[in-house]
Amino acid sequence: MKALLIIAHGSRRHQSNDEVTNIAKQIRTYEEHDFDIVESAFLELAETLIPTGIERCIKSGAKEIIVVPYFLNSGTHVTKDIPEIISAQKSLYPDINITLTRHLGASPVMLDLILQTASDTVIN
């Protein structure tokens, strides 16, 4: 089984964390993806932390976990903290293929997303 784990920073503001959790829930309802499991987790300040998110995926039967950092920029969390956490988790679960992708802001579709958002959405 293949899992998608979306990880965000985490916030003291519960509504911000709920946005990430809701993205995972919405992806679960999409029919056009290759994931059996879709979860979300946080680096800090919120539940569920990254190691627990990985554990949930494994307990749900995942043999492969794709970890997507829901971050716009390549700061210390993206370049150091998250890779270190993922590396530690890989050593705990050597039989599970855990892959860390580039952060969301580095996606080649980001330019199109920005332009589409600018054209479609105006908040007064």
What does this protein look like?
- By secondary structure, this protein is α/β, with parallel strands linked by helices.
- It is built from 4 helices and 4 strands.
- It has helices at residues 14-29, 50-59, 76-92, 110-120, and strands spanning 2-8, 37-42, 64-69, 97-100.
- It has a 4-stranded parallel β-sheet, sandwiched between helices.
- The longest helix is centred in the C-terminal third of the chain and has 17 residues, at 76-92.
- The termini are far apart.
- The relative contact order is 0.17.
- The mean pLDDT is 96.
In short:
44% of the residues lie in helices and 19% in strands. The protein has 124 residues and is an alpha/beta fold.
Topology:
Blueprint: E1 2-8, H1 14-29, E2 37-42, H2 50-59, E3 64-69, H3 76-92, E4 97-100, H4 110-120
Parallel strand pairs: 1-2, 1-3, 3-4
Portion in beta strands? 15-25%
Order of helices and strands: EHEHEHEH
Terminal Cα separation, in Å?
44 Å
Number of strands: 4
Please state the average pLDDT score: 96
Helix content: 40-55%
Contiguous uncertain segments of 5+ residues: none
Largest sheet: 4 strands, parallel
Gyration radius, in Å: 15 Å
What order do the strands of the largest sheet run in, or round the barrel if closed?
2-1-3-4
Number of helices: 4
Helix/strand-derived class?
alpha/beta
Note the overall shape: globular
Task: Offer a few descriptive terms.
44% helix; 4 strands; four-stranded parallel β-sheet; 124 residues; alpha/beta
